[in-house]
Amino acid sequence: MVVKEVGALLLSALFVVNSALAENSISFLINPQYNNYSSDTRFDLPDQVIKKPQATSQQIIELTGSYPNQLIDLTYLFSLHNQLSSNQSSETNVNTNELYLTKNWDDWEVTLGRRISSWGIGYGFRPLDVVQQYDQQTLARQSTIGKNMLALEQYSGMSSWSLLWVNPNQSDESENREIESIVSKYSTSQEAYDLHAVFRYNELNRFQLGLGGIHISSDQVAVHGSLLLSQRYQKQIHQLAGQSTVLLAERFPYETVDYHRGTQALIGINWSSSSKHNLIAEYWYDQQAYSRQQWRKLFELAKNQQNLLNQTAIPPTLIQGNIAWSAMATRAQALTQHNLMLRWSYDADHWKPSANILISAADKSSMITLSTTRSTHLFKFEAGIRLFNGTNDSVYGGLLVSNILFMTLSGEY
Fold this sequence. Notes:
Layout: H1 2-18, E1 23-37, E2 55-67, E3 73-85, E4 88-105, E5 108-115, E6 147-156, E7 159-166, E8 181-189, E9 193-202, E10 206-216, E11 221-238, E12 254-272, E13 277-286, H2 292-311, H3 316-327, E14 338-346, E15 351-360, E16 366-375, E17 380-389, E18 401-412
Antiparallel strand pairs: 1-2, 1-18, 2-3, 3-4, 4-5, 5-6, 6-7, 7-8, 8-9, 9-10, 10-11, 11-12, 12-13, 13-14, 14-15, 15-16, 16-17, 17-18
Helix pairs in contact: 2-3
């Protein structure tokens, strides 16, 4: 795989050197973080069992460009990722984020290759991102890896229609669940509103139907919302969670469980004032995340497993390994079903401060992010802190990490 990525990068460099028509840009991102961990969490384990690096840093260089031609256009985005950590060796990867060909006929456009496609509506969560989902809570925005596809699209006035064949000939058993899908989207934009409708079919979810829109109420207020209905969805459920007698497993204890009729929904409002203040409030429901009862059972299991460390003659390595398995559920992107997000920002002349709070409505735990940003024509600088609050049996209060200090420096040339 690395050989293919490097080959694609060299191919792009060849276009840059040999064609005066090629349009290219290079961007960079540096994102160091300092992590503090909680000793009160029920998932607390020695560093040799669960790695808890205090200092990490990722460095990314991206080459973005296009090569227009009378017959067909080429677009590409390649990235070089370097990851540093205080408790492990450096990792470097070369990725092909995008590499696709485009052909236009009047209002029609055909695309073949790997392309990034993000259709969602929302700031904290985007139910309509059915082609690919991106972690909206990440501390460092970076280009995601696109999906392999064949796309047919039509653009007519203020409306568009798309038909995509995504991940051709890939099955549910492939890496990262990159399953084959047929996706369609229709969008229309009017003076006071935008409307979007999406449809997807694949073997995992079967039929999915989504609707979303933005309504501009005034110069200062806009309301947005989206709804996605799935015929089927899946969760990874810990088979010992909720058990009172069997607390330890000898093999990986999670099982894929099928559910029917899943719902993901979001409603939000965006207010911007003439004094450069901006407020966003969103509520969303994600049925594919763990329910409060499922989290309660998992935290109770971890508590009982921790108690075994001092009460039995069972080898500690077996118990600690099971606690590490229990902690795996906290790594999901969408942690809770009911979520409330409030965000404030102020666009000052030089600095842009912001405050973001994400609340788990079921257990009142929260994730608070405070930051400030400075942008110039050469670079963008951001620094801040993220705090996790709540009791040790709540979603955010029960995480291993208690707070994160972060800084991001990025630029494009």
